[in-house]
Amino acid sequence: MGELGAAISGSGPALGFGRITSSYVPDDVDVVVSTSGSTGIAKEVGISRNALRVSTQASLTYLEAKIGQRWSLLLPLTHIAGVNVLARSLELGTEPIDLRNTENFTNVDFTAIVPTQLYRALNGDSKLLKHLQSAQAVLVGGAALSHSLAHSAREVGINVVTTYGMSETSGGCVYNSKPLPKVDIRINPEGKVQIKGSMLAQTYLNDAQSWNDSFKEGWFTTNDLGTFDNGVLEIIGRSDEIIISGGEKVSLSAIEQSLSKKFPSVQLAACSIASPEWGSTLYIVGEDGSKLAESAIAEHLVEVFGPVAKPKGFFSIPALPLIGVGKVDRHALAQLVRDQGVSQ
Predict the structure, then answer these.
(1) Burial class (CB in 10 A: 0-12, 13-18, 19+), 128
(2) What digits encode the pLDDT tens for the residues 88-98?
(3) What SUPFAM superfamilies does the record tag this protein with (predicted)?
């Protein structure tokens, strides 16, 4: 907390979170956060104190937070969402309660979690459930939150606030599908979400060229596909998670969201395996040894997405591999499928 406060105020050196290889930063960078590297080598995102302050103040204003209110820390500090809990606490003049490795929960005003944690709270973790129910608001981000899971949470008294953002935007900049003040959203001709605002990062310390390729005329182009109508942003999936099977396109994210809505009691993930015949073949993997209703799943996917979404196979594993916080590691998932005897 002290080091982050010094970095933000300018009285101390820049502070790095995660695996940082850079040994120095530009003058306008005060916080460095390593991305999860889901699309390749992890990037070191350089964030200015002004960008982090803008993000912090926008979030607290939306939540109607007051000086003296407290956050709990349930996320790793290697992720921007965890760093934001510290920054918001500094702004409120308090210290967050660290609950990352304890079962002794206490009530707080706000917290931030990922969908996986929300799922576990609703499916057996009674202590975490009570903790979330006691909060004035619970930010949920880091990965797509299904409508069914959000609905179930709200039904039991959890005030869920869905968030969308990334390290490059200093964390969540879209709350409950609407941009925070001074955040501009548009969709480019390729269907990708573009974001503009003073909460944007400055650069990638270890890959300035990639940053320059993504940041043009004040707009940052994400890898997320979406729609933006009447001020409401809907994320369809990632452009790098579109597979082509038999010449037809299908989004792995869209498949997972549809399955989550249809089968809310089971955690399911989708991955693809290269196929010389089809290009890519779809596999569905369930967590915790759940008995997969394979025929029902296949029938549902074909009905919604067409024959392209008929799974080639089904597998069950103890836990879905994750990257970052809450995101399914599709590369690791595909390897687990291959380990079951599936060949390319």
Answers:
(1) buried
(2) 999 999 999 99
(3) Acetyl-CoA synthetase-like (SSF56801)
